[in-house]
Fold these 4 entries.
Entry 1:
Amino acid sequence: MEKIRLYYDKANTLNMWFDDPEKEYICEESGEEVILIKDKNGKVIGLEKLNFLIPNVNINELPLETAII
């Protein structure tokens, strides 16, 4: 995984991409207003969180925690 891209839409949607968005093939609802975005092999390459609210935070300075598992 080279980098993670985050996009926040003012309609309260957060999109997170682990791979090239052009590889999107199918989306699957996983519950809790999260949609998994998969490539043609079924690998999750991104996700979309619906109704993601950020109260009074500068979106350009979001804290991010990462872990390698």
Entry 2:
Amino acid sequence: MAELSEQIRRAILGRNPLVYIHSSEEDRIIALIGDLARETADGAWPVRQWSCVTGLDGATAGPDTRDPLAALQVLLASRERGFFVMKDLAGFLTQPQVVRALRDFYYNNRGRLDRFLFIVGPELVIPEGLRKELHLVEAPPPGEPEISREIDRVMAGYPGVGIPDEHRPEIVLALKGMTLAEIDHVLHRIFQAGEQSQAATLNEIFNEKEMVVSKAGFLEFCPPRLSVANIGGLANLKDWLARRKALFSQEAIDAGVPTPKGLLIMGVSGCGKSLAVKAISSLWNVPLFRLDMNLVFSGLHGSPEAAFHQALKTVETVAPAVLWIDEIENSLGMTEDSIEMASHIFSAFLTWMQEKPPLIFIAATANRIHALPAEVIRKGRFDQVFFVDLPDDVERREVLEIHLRLNGGTPDDFDLKMLVIQMDGWSGAEIEQAVVSARIDAYAENRPFNMRDVNAAVARIVPLSKTMEAQIKGIRDWAFDRATPASRRSRRGAY
């Protein structure tokens, strides 16, 4: 809480009597104001609160102080020293009399060190008449020391249950971006369940973050169900992600090491771009959220520009996180049909990429790479641009073995060498479809699937490498000197 308390302390030391604290964490803010009141005046100054339901604390017989103007008039008429907190005043700041009363409080108490009025609430409404008088504090979420103290406080109520020291840094990092109340709720659920694995603890935290973003409506939570072991090939990409796992941490930030900003994965459709993005979540132990641009452009949440801005703010509240933008060339309106309409969103996104918090990693995928403007792929925008091509023979074997196992088969029961040759030029999605189709055919006859079923499925599939040969060649030519291969190319036939 040091950063937040320092912001409020600076307002007090600057003798600004009117402070607007933008935060939904009412209890946390009021507790902090109480600490500062005791620190500033040796505990002699009261902290009096106001709400439109209960009125002003300590108000004697007189006007009904549930009315904000009446409460402000009581404060203006009084010379009482202290800290005064008005909760959820934003809804009343359209009233000229309330604005005038706040201005009067400011000018009557400017320069004093013993009377301060704090406006606290989740809505940020600053009338034109108060822009010069209000000192604005944007309350950040709890930092690591505060989260750690909250873990200790809640854990004390559950003897025999705790978080191992070796897991604590990762749990604290996962809890970042949540309010203190949300942290409290999720910790009680975790400790109530008794001793459990780190994965189960992280899953509970991610579920809480899923609920947070669901309220906004723009983001889809992608559960961390897929590991890199379920992805065949793409060795360069997987190594790149593994090497940067330790860099995506508060320790790396404190050490001054640049954190990963993001990557762009482009290439042939069906070759594992989306799978690779989904695997980041389980590899790095951070939640993955997919930005639904259809909802942004739908108009259900106001103008697309405002909705997009709100979506990015929501991502920031749940950091650390991975933000997935699928088919970025379409999502941000980069096609010729929509670029004029979405130019403001595109510009805002590029600016946000440069200024976003360090613990938000952007994972973007693209199919039609010719539609990507130079501004997106220039150096410094993404850490790396990877090109995903059709799998070679070694990778096809890996993909085939994975899907045979996932569908209940045993790779040794199949002629993998023959299938790899038959599937030359196939994408990973096409290999998966052949195995799934074989299993469905066998299931219909109430028997395990076998080599004959897979052969029959292979004969029915015409791969993209044949139906879209010219387009794939164009993609390869474009990416040749513009992107890093996601795979390590092997010699044909080398297993």
Entry 3:
Amino acid sequence: MRFLGNIEAKTDAKGRAFLPAVFRKVLQASGEENLVLRKDVFQKCLVLYPESVWNERLDMLKAQLRPWKPAHQQMFRQFVSEAEVVTLDGNGRFLISKRLQKVAEIDQDIQFIGMDDTVEIWSPKNLTQTLKTEEEFGIEFENIMNAGDAL
């Protein structure tokens, strides 16, 4: 499953958004129907997970945590309590709750970013503030990709 692209869209007055057709096709091809929407852990955006990907990530998190440690239990509780199951209606729309709109600072304009196995949903302002310039990106990309090379 590969979601790719940067697509501008809008929410309607009820907070519904159309999942871009290119992303709906990826879901259909993979047989996915159920989705989970959650705020990102690090950025002011939302992440839309196909259910199978959500379950994999949840299993990865649980494997790192010890259920009898209060701090671990609290982390797991917060992680799962901030997630919402969403479904596409017959027109390919899904509801972004008021709570999630608020934490991601989403108004009417949104941008969908395909992130391979998930889709991020951004306010254009937050996305612009987060992205690096082309020069900064090139330098950081080179540093990360060459980090294991011996000089």
Entry 4:
Amino acid sequence: MTRLYIVRHGETDWNKKRRVQGHSDIPLNEYGIHLAKETAEGLKDTKFDAAYTSPLKRARQTAQIILGERKIPLYEEERVKEMGFGEYEGLCCAGQNKDEKSEEFQKFFGDTANFIPARHGETIEQVNKRTEDFLKEMCARKDLEGKNVLVSTHGAAMTSLLNHIRNNTKTADFWKYEVPPNCAVTIVEITDGVPKIIKEGIIYYKEPVKKWKAV
């Protein structure tokens, strides 16, 4: 059995300001670092044997904080990188400062089947393909049997990963389940090549981040 600990990155200033992040490389803010440290404390007794992270700073920082002094390599993995939103990135998509240009982007959450990516953006199908490839590799890796693996990723990428496990494959149902808050952890066990969600949305800090669907 392989056990995956899939974590969404800590908070960034763009999360706080409700800005679309995607491939924009925004680091953790002070509170995001705090969340990652609290998560690290909650996982301090977990022996990680391998670790993978999206190459984006916010995910890599989260993984590094959680791993702490553990002497294991942290591999950058493009397949768990956040969905690229192209020209939508940087737009404020909620709150008083909501950008009028973000109206089309809102279909990503409210009318997913009809969402059209902006220029230089990815489709949901493209994201699903790469996260599925990563999951299949994890399921096939005999060298990871009996080991704990940390995977540090993002809201949409994590949702895509978990949707594969749930067999929730319809684009219209992409957001059927809520995106977990920043630094929430989901544990997946892989037995005989079959993944199963064991615990979802585990929070190790005391003050929950308000749930919202920006990524």
